[in-house]
Every structure is written in C-alpha cells, then in structure tokens.
Amino acid sequence: MRVLITSAEAAPLAKVGGLADVAGSLPAALRRQSLDARVIIPGYGFIDHSANGIESLLSFDIHHRLGSNEVKLFHCQVDGIPFYLLQSPPFFGIEGDVYSHWDWDMERFIYLNQALMAALSRLDERAGWFPDVLHVNDWHTSLLPFLAREHGDDRWRELATVISIHNIAYQGKDAGGFLWQAGIHGRHHPDLMQFGLTDNLLGIGIAYSDMVSTVSPRYAVEIQYPYAGYELAPLISKRADDLRGILNGLDLGKWDPESDPTLVAKFNADNFESLRPLNKRHLQSLCRLPLLSDVPLVGIVSRLTAQKGYDLALSALRNTLARRDMQLVVLGTGEAQLEYDFWQLDQDFGDKASAFLQFDAALAQQIYAGCDIFLMPSHFEPCGLGQMVAMRYGALPLVRETGGLADTVVNYDNANADVGTGFVFHWQESEAVEGALEWALDVYEGRPAAWRRMQERGMRADFSWTKSAGEYIALYEDALAKARSN
User: What is the pTM of this model?
Assistant: First the structure.
C-alpha cells in the first residue's frame, strides 16, 4: 500500500507543535510494517537544503485564477522516509516561519492544495509513483479530498482519502472569499449545506474524506458534542461510523531516559530508584532551588495558553506553595498574562519556584527526568505527549480527565497502587486542581512504596507507534474499500 501523508509541518524539517511530531513519526512506523509511506510538505524558506541533502526533482507552471506560478518539487530522505517539499514563491519558499497572519495563511494554504494536486500528477508522470491513500492533516490540506473527488479522472476517484483532526479549535473558517478568488467552485455536499459549513476548510475535508480520524479515542467522542467540537460537532456526529480515535505514539528513540544525552544520570525502569534522584538534584541546582530530595518537585513544560488549564492552576499553585513544602519549575512561553503570572510566582516564592519563560529543549527533558509531579491540567487536550513523556521518564502526571489525558493516565487507586500511573481530576475549577495537588503531595510524602509502583508502571507502559500504526493501517484499508465501492 502506498500512503502519502501531507501536512503544514513535519518534524524534523518544519516543526511548530504536535502536528509535526505525528507527520514525522507515523510514516516511519508505517514503513516498519511494510507500507510505502511518504511525506509531502511545503518547502519553507527556512529549511536548509544542503544540511538535509535536499535535491531538485521537477518543476512546472500552475495556472490559476490570479495568474500562474512556477512550482518546484524537491526530495530527500529523512531517517529512511522519502520527503517531498513543494516551493512556489511567493506562497512557499521564501518565508522564515511555518505560519503567518490569518488572511495570508488562508490564501497560501488554499493554493497549496491546488499545487499539491498538480504535483501528484507530475510525480506520477515523472517517477511512476501515485498513492493509494492520501492522508491529510488539519485544515491546511483539507481541500484535497474535495479536489480529488471533483477531479473526474478515474485514478483520482479511486484514491482513498483520510483526514486527521489534531485540534478542532483551528478550522480555517470563513474561507468563502478566498476559495472564490482561487477559482474553487461551490462545495455542494448536502451535509455542508445542511450545517452551514461550505466555507469551513476543515468541515470540507471531513465531509469529503472517505474516513476521519483524530488523535485519541476520548477526543473522538468529545468532538461529537458542541462543547468540544464547536460548530463542526453535528457534521462529525453524522460521520461517527467513519470516525476513529487513534492515540498518537511517542518516538521512543528520542524520548528514552536510558540514552538521553541531556541527563546527568541515565536510568530505566529497573534502576530508576537509585539513579533518577541524581537528575532531580541537578534540576534543583539549575533552577536555583534548595537541594532537598524529600521535597516534592512539580514540573510544567508547556505552551502557556488558556487551553492548557493554567488559568485554573495558578491560584492552586500559589495557595499550595504558601502552605506546603513543595517546589515548582515552569518552562514555556505563551499568553502574556500567564507568562506574567508565572513570573510573579517565581518572584514571590523564589526559594520554592523557578519560571523559565523561554524554549529550551534540553531543559525540558531535564524537567521530565527530575520532577516528581508533572502538571497538565488542560481544559481540552486532543492527545498530548507531555504526559506520556513524563511517565516514560518516571514522573507522575497530574491531569484533567479529558481527551488523550483520560486515555493515557490511569488514576491512582488511593491504596497500594495496584492501579494507577498518576492523578486525575475532572471539574474545570481551581479547587479541583488544588485538591488533586494536595492529594499527590500527601501520597508522595506518606506512601513512597505506592509512588514507586506507579513510577515503574508508567515507565513500562507502551506508548510506541507500533499499535497506533496498526490502527492507521486498518483505517487506510477501510478508506480504500469505501473509495473503490463508490
């Protein structure tokens, strides 16, 4: 089976968030299971061609409503995965960032879908390669299922299409004027007409794809309701029979405390009791905190946004820091008010709290390896990787019961830890965060054997891509069967 994954970003060439991790890691797992999986992304101007061995493959002109543009297709191998990069200035090829402002991104990503259609035809003509399954991701490439369906050519009609929703909050709404400008005719799918979504790019992709997936089983249920699916909820609910929730996996080669070069003491599930504390001590030293092994250390590595629930956590952290022996390390950037509030915690509790309002990949991994409790109190979380990385590195997550957090963190049984890998609360209230934090601190101080059992269980949990890749293969097979029966 030939699968082409297309996305606005894919690690390691272009990465902003979790979308890039999936687009970069999933194809490797698929190839290990004998699929011919490849990736195509925009060839952004910041991507270093010489450092990545990127070579020119073909070029052609594309004619559209506003004129014509030259399209250049490049290729390279990234850890054995064939990557294609599409350049077509001024849309793609000269920029310094993946994303720009809203109106320009709408115009350029709509154009990307048109250019990708043309590029796939040329790739077939030049290299004799055409996918059986086209896997698009989020709104940036969500026009492709519609364009493929409307193409008219038998080869395109037999192409199976799958769309993955990574975060339904970002939809490409109000695209009607941009679509008209690009010469893309009306989207007359009855479901789009019924729900008023003919100008919603993500909605178009959901309506026209053969199968739909999202990044955790729980999130697949949540987005069928307005509180999580917003205006797309009724469309997704209507497609429930074709919807799958497939949990994102971890790149176990990257996230491995036994080989992580950033750690002062490498460890695994067999020896973490003796070696992991050395990483906690090192983290405390880096963060100018007292070197106290018996004081629980809470870690945060995150974008500091309202979605992540830190509006709930701040007052809980402030109250608990004032009342209990605990330490806090925060790493992240985001909304100005949240950055200020965490900076203020650092100032007010200098001997207990340290905030790094920046991006630092090495420090992030040291926090995972050195903290005792990893705080992730999200309002909503489609999948989340932080909680899985934390468990692999021996930290116990404290999370809200939502999306992928509910699917990956098993709540402590409040006894001998026959069950549990962390602490889970439900209500979107500061009091709920504070109560769960108090509970975790009590367990750390009073039940060390139970704590160690949960650490070991979390470290041994299988968060690899192997199982998820198998589920994607089943999804592709369903999409192929559906496409070829139409």
Answer: 0.93
